[in-house]
Amino acid sequence: MDGEYGKISCIIMASGLSERYGKNKLLEKLGGQEVILHTAGSLAGAEFSPVTVTRSAEVKALMDQEGFACILHDGPKKSDTIHVGIEHTSPDTAGYLFMPGDQPLVRPESLKKMAEQFLRSPDRAVRLSFEETPGSPVLFPAFCREKLIAYTGDRGGIEVLKAEHIPCDCVEAEAAWELWDVDTPESMEKVRKVLAESAGTDCPEYFTGGEKK
Predict the structure, then answer these.
(1) How far does Cα 74 stand from its chain's mean position?
(2) Under a CB-based contact definition with an 8 Å cutoff, are residues 78 and 153 in contact?
(3) Residue 4 — very low, low, confident or very high, per pLDDT cuts 50/70/90?
(4) 78-134 pLDDT, tens digit each
């Protein structure tokens, strides 16, 4: 990101084993494009420069091919992914946006709204929500760095948010499907249905490198 937005680091969490899905869900095709590229493309469309953290050599190769920064590691826990991501961000960052790799329908506009809310109150976390129910992604203030690095669990940064009682604002998504992930084949079919129903419309929008698909 340029200007003020450029102070926010963005980490795509892509280290899961897709056990509930049965195969690597991040490489499944949606509208001719892999799930992980939909997610990264939406972030690029919001002018973020994400770094993907993964245990998959195939995901690493794909991201390298498409020009997205990607780190390959072998840590088994979500906390390992968090630590590797933070290690590859600027020490001067204003905040950390953690984006699940399997959340392909999030809109660039919602991501921009999150960044704008955070920059208004940089001492507060920000979560994307729908109808006042918070979800992912989550944007953490820079002062959470040491708390995130000290975290050793496997449920993600939300545990840090709750345990440390970090104040948090919610930004409302335009639609519930922005918060959907693709943990199972059934949830993937729901996502495919949204794509099919939106064909030929302006919503949802999918980006790769800032270009609309």
Answers:
(1) 20
(2) yes
(3) low
(4) 999 999 999 999 999 999 999 999 999 999 999 999 999 999 999 999 999 999 899
Q: E strands within 43-195? A: 51-54, 69-72, 95-100, 125-130, 133-141, 168-172
pLDDT tens-digit map of 140-182: 999 999 999 999 998 899 999 999 999 999 999 999 999 999 9
Whole-number Cα distances in Å, 86 to 12, 42, 174:
11, 21, 29
| Domains present along the chain, CATH in parentheses | 3-181 (3.90.550.10)
Distances (CA, A) of 134 to 98, 99, 183: 14, 14, 18
At position 48, the amino acid (one-letter code) is F
**Beta bridge partners of residue 54, listed in sequence order:** 14, 72
To which H or E segment does residue 85 belong? helix 78-87
* Cβ atoms < 10 Å from Cβ of 2: 7
Alpha-carbon distance values, 125 to 20, 75, 84, 134, 137 (Å): 30, 26, 20, 12, 11
End-to-end CA distance of the chain: 21
Give the global pTM.
Answer: 0.90
Residue 146: CB atoms within 10 A of its CB come to 9
